[in-house]
Amino acid sequence: MEIISGSCRFGLWFVRVWWSGNLVWNVTFSHQPLGGPAPPEVVKFLAGHSTDLSPLRSAAATPGSPYSHIYREVLSIPYGSTATYGEIARRAGSSPRMAGLAMKRNPTPLLIPCHRVVSQNGIGGFTPDVEIKKMLIDLEQKRKSYN
DNA sequence: TAAACTGTCCCGC
DNA sequence: GCGGGACAGTTTA
User: Fold this and answer.
1) In whole angstroms, what is the distance from residue A37 CA to residue A42 CA?
2) Is the C-beta of residue A66 closer than 7 Å to nucleic acid chain B?
3) CB of residue A144 closer than 7 A to nucleic acid strand B?
4) Which nucleotide is nearest to A100 (CA to C1')?
5) Active site positions of A, annotated
């Protein structure tokens, strides 16, 4: 299947997505847009019009990928909620340090909602910019409070 | 407040 | 191929 690359705006950033059908291979954040469409589910999610990215599948969450057991726990965090690195690690039978590393290496942020994983006494980190993480958490909590 | 712990990746040899 | 260091955190003393 042909892989499509596209982007859509999110605040001061562009979310760049490489995808084919309902399978997403890669998501990155950049100040430079990418010519092409992003998946409609992602566009709606970033606009706050949708809370559900489940029609899309992340290539990184498929069993056998290095951190799939950690990503599975991250995927179970509901929209508008957060969990700590320690909680995720405990549920996945791993260590907090590993949970942080798995989030850093996450090739598909948004789909695997690593922005919902925060540190015990702070927001934790985010690549390339923790500002994006704050915006995503803020978006979800505002959208959630409408319901 | 500092140090130990954790598991994987990456780079240099 | 192997060893050491880095890394988006937590816990304990």
Assistant:
1) 10
2) yes
3) no
4) C8
5) 114
Decide if domain A59-137 falls under CATH 3.30.565.10: no
**Residue A27, amino acid:** V
DSSP letter for each residue of A84-110: EHHHHHHHHTS-HHHHHHHHHH-SSBT
Tell me if residue A129 falls in helix, strand or coil.
coil
Helices A68-75 & A85-92, crossing angle to 10 degrees?
A: 120
pLDDT in tens, A22-67: 999 999 999 999 989 999 999 999 999 999 999 999 988 877 777 8
| Full-model pTM | 0.93
What percent helix, strand, coil does chain A show, rounded to 5?
40, 20, 40
